[in-house]
Amino acid sequence: MAATTAGRDGSRPADPRLVVAESPSCAECRRLAPVVERVSSGYPDVTVERFDVTADPQRARNLGVRATPTLIGYDGADETVRVTGGRSRAEMESLFDALRAGSPAASGPSGLDVRLRLLAGIALLGAGVAAGPSWILIGIGAVATVLGGAGALQRRRR
Fold it and tell me: Considering just the CA atoms, what is the radius of gyration of the chain in Å?
């Protein structure tokens, strides 16, 4: 996906860069901010741009931000990665390594997302069986479990 952003003075953005869309009311944003700061200090060639989606909603709309935190990586004007939600320090380092190398970063659900999907799926399966059986709950639980399992497999392949 190509980005059509330029600096306010019309200049082209620096290579590479990470745009972090955040919100003051977002607990995950507050948890992620120091991780981004610590990791970015080891990557002086990667520019980090943070912006508040509540203070600049037009920019958030232009970038297609639907949730916070959203991290968007660019190589020049080309978007190379987009992830939403928190990331561990190791995941952030992988993202910065990919930005520095100019290659698309591996994206997908975080470890916490995968565990929550698996737990939700198992809980729904159990509730569906306990409800005598409720095929709707069993079906939804099966789908959630499969999605969680697929996320776990995707993370192992990285």
Answer: 18
- Would you say 20 and 87 are in contact if contact means Cβ atoms under 8 Å apart? no
Q: Are residues 35 and 95 both part of a single domain?
A: yes
Q: How many CB atoms lie within 10 A of CB 48?
A: 17
CB < 8 Å & 24+ apart, contacts of 119-124? 119/148, 120/144, 120/148, 121/145, 121/146, 121/147, 121/148
In a domain, 62, yes or no: yes
Domain span at 49:
17-101
Q: Which residues contact 4 (CB under 8 A, 6 or more apart)?
A: 77
What is the identity of the amino acid at 109?
P
Distance between CA atoms of 8 and 13, rounded to whole angstroms?
10
Q: Can you name the residues that pair with 78 across neighbouring β-strands? A: 2, 75
Is the pTM higher than 0.70? no
Q: 10-residue block means of pLDDT along the chain (158 residues)?
A: 39 76 94 94 93 96 93 88 88 89 64 73 82 82 75 53
Task: Name the 3-class secondary structure at 137.
Answer: helix
Residue 50 maps to which CATH number? 3.40.30.10
